[in-house]
Specification:
Blueprint (H helix, E strand, L loop, with lengths): L2 E12 L2 E12 L3 E6 L5 H8 L7 E6 L2 E2 L5 H7 L1 E3 L12 H9 L7 H6 L2 H20 L15 H13 L5 E5 L7 H18 L2 E5 L3 H7 L2 E6 L2 E6 L1 H6 L1 H14 L1
Parallel strand pairs: 3-8, 3-9, 6-7, 7-8
Antiparallel strand pairs: 1-2, 1-4, 4-5, 9-10
Helix pairs in contact: 3-5, 3-6, 5-6
This protein binds adenosine-5'-triphosphate.
Adenosine-5'-triphosphate binds next to strand 2 and helix 1.
InterPro entries: AAA+_ATPase (IPR003593), ABC_AA/LPS_Transport (IPR051120), ABC_transporter-like_ATP-bd (IPR003439), BCA_ABC_TP_C (IPR032823), P-loop_NTPase (IPR027417)
Keywords: ATP-binding, Nucleotide-binding, Transport
GO molecular function: ATP binding; ATP hydrolysis activity; L-isoleucine transmembrane transporter activity; L-phenylalanine transmembrane transporter activity; L-valine transmembrane transporter activity
Length: 258
């Protein structure tokens, strides 16, 4: 399988604290990966470094062979690595449809001058953008909310909107930080089905941080387990489930409860 992302020995120090202490991974196209671990294990810090929000203290990241270590978030997004945040970051007072249209602007092909002058090419692009945005809303099952204000949506629908928004930017790799947080079991199950469909339709890769083990085990083909800034185990779900280090550090309770 062609390699999409290669991460070598990524580290992040925060004033003496080694939040991430040597994270290495190889992600292939069209695969779904999980990143699990106890609170404070360093998972979000890894995603922050991969998406350019934080500059690594050491290590390197290559995306389709191009080095992107320490690049700015907008450049990384333009290459096709798009992320969501643990806490929703929507444009609250703007319509659902416009939120997604804004997300799609990353790969816009018209200039700002054309946009200001309302030129034909801009209007055509705008229509295409709207069509694409509606398509993404349908994929996430929230098209009925298109004209509503983003902050008027139920929480679960807002989470879906975040994903619809980054999908509109034509990603090759989605980085999802706890996409099932705050969802009820039924909504989580639906999210799993939608993400599987999205992966098939767009042939993209997904790396997701998630505490809900049902979501992780049913969605991910390969899992990285972290504790105290390091990878303590990696492999297919059945390997991770049985790994003594993972059970001790993290899964013990979740496994008993499953
Ligand atoms: N900007 C920062 N400045 C200082 N310390 C930080 C910063 N960001 C994270 N940390 C610390 O780094 C460690 C790893 O945090 P991180 O958020 O990556 O963990 P996590 O695995 O995502 O945890 P959770 O599951 O609770 O979200 C924690 O000890 C955290 O307090």
């Amino acid at each position: 399988m062609p390699e999409l992302l290669t991460v070598n020995g990524l580290e992040k120090n925060f004033k003496g604290l080694k939040a991430v202490n040597g994270f290495s991974a190889k992600l292939s196209e069209n695969q779904i990966y999980g990143l699990i671990g106890t609170n404070g294990a360093g998972k979000t810090t890894v995603i922050n470094m991969l998406s350019g929000v934080l500059k690594p203290s050491a290590g390197s990241v290559f995306f389709r062979g191009i080095e992107i270590t320490g690049e700015r978030p907008d450049k990384i997004a333009k290459l096709g690595i798009l992320r969501t945040y643990q806490n929703l970051r929507l444009f609250k007072k703007v319509s659902v449809l416009q939120n997604v249209m804004i997300g799609a602007q990353i790969d816009k092909s018209y200039s700002n001058i054309e946009a200001i002058l309302g030129m034909t090419r801009f209007r055509q692009e705008e229509r295409k953008l709207e069509e694409k945005a509606l398509n993404m809303l349908e994929l996430m099952g929230i098209e009925d909310y298109a004209k509503e204000r983003a902050d008027s949506l139920p929480y679960g629908a807002q989470r879906k909107l975040e994903i619809a928004r980054i999908l509109a930017a034509s990603p090759k790799l989605l980085l999802l930080d706890e996409p099932a947080a705050g969802l009820n079991p039924q909504e989580s199950l639906e999210l799993v089905q939608r993400l599987k469909k999205i992966r098939e339709e767009f042939e993209l890769a997904i790396l997701l941080i998630e505490h809900d083990m049902k979501v992780v085990m049913s969605l991910c083909e390969y899992i990285y387990a972290m504790a105290a800034g390091q990878i303590i185990a990696e492999g297919e779900p059945k390997v991770i489930r049985e790994d003594p280090k993972v059970i001790e550090a993290y899964l013990g309770r979740a496994k008993k409860d499953a």
